[in-house]
Amino acid sequence: MVSNIVSNNGTEFKNLDLLSFFQKEGITHLVTSPYTPQQNHIAERGNRTTVNKARCLLKESGLPLSYWAKAVNTAVYLENLTPNSSILFEKPFKRWHNKQPSLNHLHPFGCQAIVYNSYINGKFSDRGVKGVFLGYGEGHRSFRILDMEKGNVIISHHVKFDNNIFPYKENPPLNYFS
């Protein structure tokens, strides 16, 4: 049972629906002082871990910083499949769904992906769209693929991956920690 929630003074935490929910559930809402993230050190440490993972995903994939949000989403997705010391080394996924997660669908962030093209314009048109893997779809078993030609993101389950090719990576990283 949750007894306290600590947040900053953001407007997203100052709405009547949320405050009445806290009151109804007996949850105390604690607010940090302005510009003092150290008062919410547990959440801030978790954020730092996630951002570090996202930075590594971007670095290894060769994708530009403009894809940081996709990297963060993928880092969180992977964290939910990974044992966590704060819950006795259980996987968050197992806690929520009461079963072990399948890892068969995992692929390296930024690897090459070919999405099945269902819009066929003739016998000799391409049957696939070349893209880059940007993460996992929400709520269903699907993948987010950047269409390299058009620049848009396609969400599909019908994808073939080459886990060893990274289209955006020109050279291997010289410094993994920068």
What share of residues is helical? 25-40%
Strand content: 15-25%
Q: Which strands sit side by side, in order, in the main sheet?
A: 6-5-4-3-7
Number of domains: 2
Count of runs of 4 or more consecutive helical residues? 4
Which term fits the overall shape?
Answer: elongated
Organism: Austropuccinia psidii MF-1
Catalytic activity: DNA(n) + a 2'-deoxyribonucleoside 5'-triphosphate = DNA(n+1) + diphosphate
Protein name: Integrase catalytic domain-containing protein
Domain Integrase catalytic: 1-100
Task: Explain what you see.
The chain is of the alpha+beta class. It folds into 2 domains: 1-35, no CATH class; 36-162, no CATH class. Helix content is 28%, strand content 20%. The chain has helices at 16-25, 41-61, 68-79, 92-97, and strands at 4-7, 28-31, 112-116, 128-136, 143-147, 153-156, 159-162. The strands form 2 sheets. The protein has a 5-stranded antiparallel beta sheet with strand order 6-5-4-3-7. The protein is elongated. The mean pLDDT is 89.
Features:
single chain; 178 residues; alpha+beta; five-stranded antiparallel beta sheet; 4 helices; transferase; RNA-directed DNA polymerase activity; nuclease; RNaseH_sf; RNaseH-like_sf
Protein topology:
Elements: E1 4-7, H1 16-25, E2 28-31, H2 41-61, H3 68-79, H4 92-97, E3 112-116, E4 128-136, E5 143-147, E6 153-156, E7 159-162
Parallel strand pairs: 1-2
Antiparallel strand pairs: 3-4, 3-7, 4-5, 5-6
